[in-house]
Amino acid sequence: GKVLTMEYIDAIKVSLLDQLAEAKLDQKEIANRVAELMMQQIFEFGFFHADPHPGNIHILPGNQICFLDFGLMGFLDIRTREAFVDLVWGIARRNEISVTTALLKLAESDSEPSREGLESDVAEFMHQHFYRPLGELRFGRLVAELFELTAKNKLRLSPDLFIMLKSLSLTEELVRHLNPDHNLVEQAEPFMKKARLARLHPQRFAGSLLEFGRDFSELAREFPAEMRRIMSQIKTGDARLNFRHQGLEPLINSAERVSNRISYALVLASLIIGSALIAHADLKFADVSLGVIGFVLSALMAFGLLISILRHGRM
User: Fold this and answer.
1) What is the pLDDT of residue 155?
2) Which of 30, 123, 159, 176 has the fewest CB atoms nearer than 10 Å to its CB?
3) Alpha helix stretches (DSSP H) within 107-248
């Protein structure tokens, strides 16, 4: 195949530690700079390299970082970035309520999720993983497991978030390969503080108010037309109300079971009475009383009904 070369980079692949040492490059400083750049891309710009594996990061003289291959880039809007900051902030502060709130902001669901159930799962998750010092936590693994928790609670996360998660995981693997003692969570803290403080900036606050006013004015403008459309549907009979019950399944199943037992008991009673009449008439088949056969079948049916009743724990 053919390769399009736009620029030749004479540098050392970041994972080749022996060559980095021979070139007298500082591995700890490189790890710090790689993490710093990725944090800036994700938390400040929301536009980041989505495939930062070692083959796409080379080191130039003076510990300069060179990113290659921008074919796969990720994007997060400011609201998603802020919700993700709240998520990481809650993880770092071991606050399951903040983590749950952030997850609900980041996720979508076809039905209203149970906040109590989600909070319970988050609390259990954090109790299992946060007995270790903060420096021993694995940033990428924690967030990945937390996103699996959302799937368990039938919440959906956007593809951009998964791309960002992959980038963070690759970055963490790389910086820990360069420096096993590197603390990515601690390095992310200043970026998170900056993002949280940015919400209180007067310009940002004014922009939020302006956006709210614009959305509200659009709603007010569209409301009369929507009301006219609804009234028109009511007049023409096109309006429909759909009702859906929930929680009645056990009652329905119980009613069906009762009706089945009543029908079964009626058949059993009829068989007993019929067998008695046949026995009284002394009808036989191959010298065997048909009444006796009927009574045997009745006994088997009665025994089956008794087992069914005892199995459900009620007479």
Assistant:
1) 84
2) 159
3) 115-129, 139-152, 159-178, 184-198, 202-236
